[in-house]
What does this fold into?
Amino acid sequence: MCDLGHRHDHFGFLVDTPEIRALIAETERLRSAIHDDRSRVEALRPAFARLLAADGWLPESCARPDDTSKMGGGIGQYALYRAEDGSLCLFSLVVPALAATPVHDHLAWGLVGIYRGRQDETVYRRLDDGRDPSRAQLEISKRQELGRGEFYTLLPPIDDIHYVKTISDTPSISIHLLANDTACVWRHRFEPSTGIVTPFRSGYANAPCPDNA
It folds into this structure.
């Protein structure tokens, strides 16, 4: 069950399975033991890979498109876990066939991997100094195709601006483990062709953002 529209407040486990609990427990252990973001993310890779390889833990209610999506295109973003202080979240992102996310950032370290379908990821590097919050000069730094079980790291500001497009004939589902409350923090949508930057908050399909977010 994805707790659609219920159990809000500070969230905790909106989907409570042994697989998710194991990943969150290992993440919290490593957050206490390792203080360098890069080393911590590297140490998390085996636990994250186990979650992606496991079957049956993701409810179908967290694996479907969302016609009310704030990201547009029927993209569904479903909270699976949120730390009470907003310092960690786990969510599924459902992107319908041939749909693409906006170009966006995340503002937190973490891991992103494919659970179903295939995605094409386009990553940008920022060329300007970021002093103007309404403008950004971007260039493509890399593209990659990813399928089930493949994943990548986020270590802002490196590789933090991207968009993904589903290239399978069914929706792609990616799993995100990030060190903030990603759908509820104000982050940025980019228009590479014009340089325009717009603040946005994507929101979760299955829970409202806390009042103080």
